[in-house]
Amino acid sequence: MSNSPKPAQATPLNPRRRGIIVGASDGMGATLAHKLVKEGYTLALIARRKEKLSSLCAEINTAEGETRALAYVHDVANYDEVPDLLRKIVADLGGLDLVVFMAGVNFPPGLNNYNFEGDRKMIEVNLIGAMAWLSPVAEMFQNAKAGQIVGISSVAGDRGRIGNPGYNTSKAGLTTYLEALRNRLTRHGVNVLTVKPGFVKTEMIKAAQGGTPFAISPEQAAEDIYKAMRKRKQLIYTASIWRWIMLVIQHVPSVIFRRMSF
Length: 262
Prior knowledge:
Layout: E1 17-22, H1 27-38, E2 41-47, H2 50-64, E3 69-73, H3 82-93, E4 98-101, H4 116-144, E5 148-152, H5 165-185, E6 191-197, H6 218-230, E7 235-238, H7 241-250, H8 254-257
Parallel strand pairs: 1-2, 1-4, 2-3, 4-5, 5-6, 6-7
């Protein structure tokens, strides 16, 4: 639940875009929240960690001098909570123009280990959690013939590598799901943007194996995402060099690729 005062409602003279960021307490989510508020959005911020979420909202609202960020504590694996929470957020914001699904977990098992429990959690959060939120949002935006969905996938979903099969699978599934939503919704005036980050300097980078080349700051990632949103792009890599790296990786023959150790 949100304990913050309700934000000022949009008016014809003061149009204000309204958005949700799922997975917003730190890292790219928190950085993107700051960016979007500065660009005129009022936001509902969703995360599991109440203290970090409340701190982020207080920081944003103090800086802006008004309520521009509302906190909602929620674990995306609690799928049954989504319909009621979504309805409450739309009522609190007075409408909805944007949803960003940023939530994600990474539990690398190690090259010689298998961990179904970790794999299950990654699928539950990274993929099914996204579907639980974006399916009702897609229906809402389709009926309104307006809106924008942004899903944070990963370069990890572009090919099945040996280091973390469960994470690769969760992100590959998310990429395909977002593409399917895009193919459904574009004809209804709704934009769906898939973002594929490489390495971003957040807590999750600690789970990376084999080095972190071309790592970027959360600020650069947020800037890239916002620029792509404004241009209503369908797919971006951040940093952009990953587009070319993954193009090469995708075309390495399987007989060679399976011998690689990353």
